[in-house]
Known about the structure:
With 153 residues, the protein is mainly α.
Amino acid sequence: MTATRQFPWDHPRFKSWISVARACQVMNQILAREIASLDIKPPHLDILVNLYRFEGLTQQDLARKLLVGRSNMSMLLPQMEKRGLITRRGDENDRRVLRLYLTDDGRALAEKAMDIQTKVIDRMMETSTLEECMSVANVMDRLTAALLLRDGR
Length: 153
């Protein structure tokens, strides 16, 4: 007698995971298309938004917030610096540390990009009630925290 094999797609949590992953992928594709007119891509947007919210982050802090390696930052930041969107300044208390800041052009671009991002999010989430949106956010926050904990971060 052979035991019946259980496939991942037969598991209810797998369906949930795939649904979230697909929504994220579609959202990123739509967002990339919408911000292309600003000559930026989603990774640039992530950097702009984080520096807009948290001025003066170090490259390491920014990489940690975005859950990417410092090497990713090493590729993107010089491009953005060359475009005049960000600047690096020494830390007042520790000269070994460089902090990242938006320039005036970077701040203006971040604001335009955030307007586009907000409209995309509103279009995507308009089929859900505020309570449903908050429920999804709470579940995803718990999931992210559990994954980071298991990953040792």
